[in-house]
Amino acid sequence: MPVFKTPFNGYSVRFSPFYESRLAVATAQNFGILGNGRVHVIDLAPTGPVINELIAFDTADGVYDVAWSESHDSVLVAAVADGSIKVYDTALPPQSNPVRSLKEHAREVHGLDYNPTRRDSFLSASWDDSVKLWTLDRPASLRTFREHAYCVYSVAWNPKHADVFASASGDCTVRIWDVREPGSTMIIPGHEHEILSCDWNKYDECLIATASVDKSIKIWDVRNYRVPVSVLNGHGYAVRKIKFSPHRRNLLVSCSYDMTVCLWDFMVEDALVGRYDHHTEFAVGVDLSVLVDGLMASTGWDELVYVWQQGMDPRAS
Amino acid sequence: MATTQSPSPNSNDDKPQAVSAEVVQQANQVQQDVRPEATKQGVPASVFVNSEPIREDQVSNAVKFLSHPKVRGSPVIYRRSFLEKKGLTKEEIDEAFRRVPDPSPSSQPASLSQDGQANSLSSVQTQAPIQTPQPLPAAPTGIVSSGRVARRQFQWYHAVSAVGLLAASGCGTALLIKKVIIPKLKLWVRKVVLEEDNVYAKKIDAKPSLAEEAAAAAKAAAAAASDVAKASQEMLNSKNEERRRFEEFMNLMDAQVQEMKSMSNSIRKLEGQANSSGRAFSDHDDHRASASSTKQSYANGNVDLNVQPGRTSTLPASAEPPHPKSFMEKMEMIQRGEKPSNIREVNDMPPNPNQQLSNPRITPRTKPWEAQNGPRQVLQSQTSAEGLNQNGVDSGLNYLVDDESSTPWWQRKNVRITEIENEDEVKAAGSYGVKTNEQPSVQRTWVPPQPPPVAMPEAAEAIRRPKSAPKETAMQEQLADEQSAARPSEVTDELQRITKMFSTAGKLNKVSSYQVALKVFKTRDTFYLRVRTFQHDFVPRDPKAKPKKLKYPQFYDPYGPRPPPSDKIVELADCISALSPEERGQIGPTLMERLRHPKMQTITVEGMELGSQGGAGAGAAKTEEKKEKTTFDVKLEKFDAAAKIKVIKEVRAFTNLGLKEAKDLVEKAPVMLKQGVTKEEASDIMERIKATGGVAVME
Fold this sequence. Notes:
The complex is a heterodimer. Chain A is an all-beta fold. Chain A contains no helices and 28 strands. Chain A is about 0% helix and about 50% strand. In chain A, a hairpin with a 6-residue loop joins strand 14 and strand 15 (about 165-170). Chain B has helices at about 1-5, 5-10, 15-30, 55-65, 70-75, 75-85, 90-100, 110-125, 140-150, 155-200, 205-235, 240-270, 275-300, 325-335, 375-390, 400, 415-430, 440-445, 455-465, 470-485, 490-505, 510-535, 565-575, 580-595, 600, 605-625, 645-655, 660-665, 680-690; strands at about 630-640, 670-675, 695-699. The longest helix of chain B is centred in the first third of the chain and has 46 residues, at about 155-200. The N terminus of chain B is likely disordered. Chains A and B meet through strand 5, strand 8, strand 17, strand 25 and strand 28 of A and helix 6, helix 14 and helix 18 of B. Chain A: InterPro entries: Beta-prop_EIPR1-like, PEX7, WD40/YVTN_repeat-like_dom_sf, WD40_PAC1, WD40_repeat_CS, WD40_repeat_dom_sf, WD40_rpt. Chain A: Belongs to the WD repeat peroxin-7 family. Chain A: It is found in: Cytoplasm, Cytosol; Peroxisome matrix.
């Protein structure tokens, strides 16, 4: 399984929704505390387990997240730690990049998500407690959602309903919003500690999973959000990111500060299906490919990006 | 505004101290309740809206909470956040906010006396710090004073006078006790001591005892006096308890933070980080401390919040994950104000802010979960794939030319149906970069059925081994073979049955039997299919899984299950049981003699059989009539709690039970320990148990 070494510490990895072999990696220097950042667009070579870098973009501050556009196959957006969002187009020559710099957040932008159904808009989650809605064609944000009391760590669009999204915040709540409504429509006080990530189930639009600093992942049904559908314990430290599988109804993957990437099947009694222990530092980014069933990628502060097929050892060569 | 506002704090300040603690407790309780979801009317269009009705108790708690003067001082956002965390819905929070200025009027008269009492408590506190060294928290008086300001004027004077009286009386009694009685006691003690000195020549043993008695009495009196003082103090402070408890929560949190600080410091020391580590973690701890202080300040109405959700904000409040060493170094460097050397000046601004985005070359693909029409997309993407090849930047697709026969390495999976189908697709289409193989994948993942339990462990084992594509099919066949080997009997039996059916029926209708056979095979195939789909590739042994607990039978039956005894034996047993105890006692020895009889022994076969039969008969008799007096049961009646362990040991010794089972058995006393033993064995057991301190009876 190939490995890609980034010069900076990895923060996020995303598969392209257009090309099966393409990924974008968000990295930040000095663990993201202070320093430059870089967005890598990498490609998996078909012949052997090799990863090639297509192009890389440097930023003034660390890049915390990256998202591919669902409408343009060569466009990606990057969340930068100085509060700006950079739009890159890999089809244009490098000197024309970045195409846009959208600076509206007062603090670091920590999460990005592109709308997979409507494909025209994306959301940014920031440490200034707000979530902003953008489109690629406008220089200013369309909406600002300001209700959280603390940093918003992640946002996720609902895969079925194009107007609904969820935001996970350090104020220990997950809020569900509808872009047509001025305020949040639901508040799920999910954990006793900060919630670092949330994601919707792709096959059941009412199930949402939240990952928290309290080492657990909880699955909630928004129709009955007082009690979680399932609680997944097993990580040794805070769970940093979770992602539901686009191909399996019950599968989700999570990465944590205990340096492991875990696969869960939450409908089963013994939910932990797989555990990958390949990182030597915090595993902070994980993604499952929408196009290839079972293909997953992860990155961590050990400056490595692994891409492997579910079931195989990511470090096998 | 003041006049209209004044009733509200009045009623809601009845128990200013109790309110917040109450709210916290009640809200906690409510939050922990599993609430049945209110049934949806079916009317709301969106599922993502809270459809529960407004809970009145939550709202009233929230109202009480919001009316607290300290809470009123805090920003709205924190109040809302607090209530949200408690599990209130938006509607409930809004309702509470609406309700806050309007209290219920009925609570007003009750509030007067309670106000007076509250005031008295506080003033007594201020006047009697000399009684006990109890620290006077500044907050309660602050609260009460702020409450006092808003009260009506006449009530204030009332309150003050009542306070004064109570204070005076309380002080007076307390002072009296301390100043009069204790000196008296001291004098008395001194007198006694002096007397003792004067008559020291007298009986020495009596003197010390007297002195001791006196000293003890003096001590007791002093203790009693202090107790009385304490009691009075407690009485005075009883009202403040609840509010102080609330603050204790805050203090506890602070204490926890302190502990965490010390813990993290020690961890850092262990990791070999020297003095510099303290600073790095002080940052994290400061963050957490300020996080907890936000909660405290929230309660107390302070606004100054210096929490910086910095780059380290995602650290857990509990055990911290071990950070990389270089991370710590970087943190320290930055805290010192140094910039790490590897930072460059990068201009990442767009050179042309109005740059047009390039046109998309691929139409967006449907997601697997929304896939409705696969083929349509496939065609479109195939045509656009041509255009892709020409683009230099997107060299990622040049591989199309290179590889046609084999799948790319990342599409090789262990055991998936897609595997075989992918291969087919690749062979057919020649290009895989587009969505040719999305179609089968799309159809496949449309309705993922439930995985069956892993019925074939050997199959699961086989499948766990990672294999590449060509070997895949071979393994599948192997799997099929394994499974067919495992179930040949069923299938062949079925087949035989079916053919028999048909042959005996007379009409050897080849077509129908063939169809039946086909059905049988089809079910086999589908079974295989199901097995193939849902093998977990990697099922790790859960390291945290508890070892399986096996069930032990309730009674230890060393002879195991046996066939029921024959009639002859039953009759024998009846005869024996009809005997008197002394005669029964003779059965054993006589039987032994008989069996050892030389005449008996010559007929070895019979002897052995008889012996075994006798033994079996005896055993059967024992099992059949457990309570019969031929065999004895030992029952553990009770045991010394101190000797429990010894008793358990003994029980284990003669029942061969495991430790846990023996423990359970003993704890169930009175319980049957052993059944079907001879009298000697039973008495032996009894003695042994008695020796350890238990009581056993023979039955």
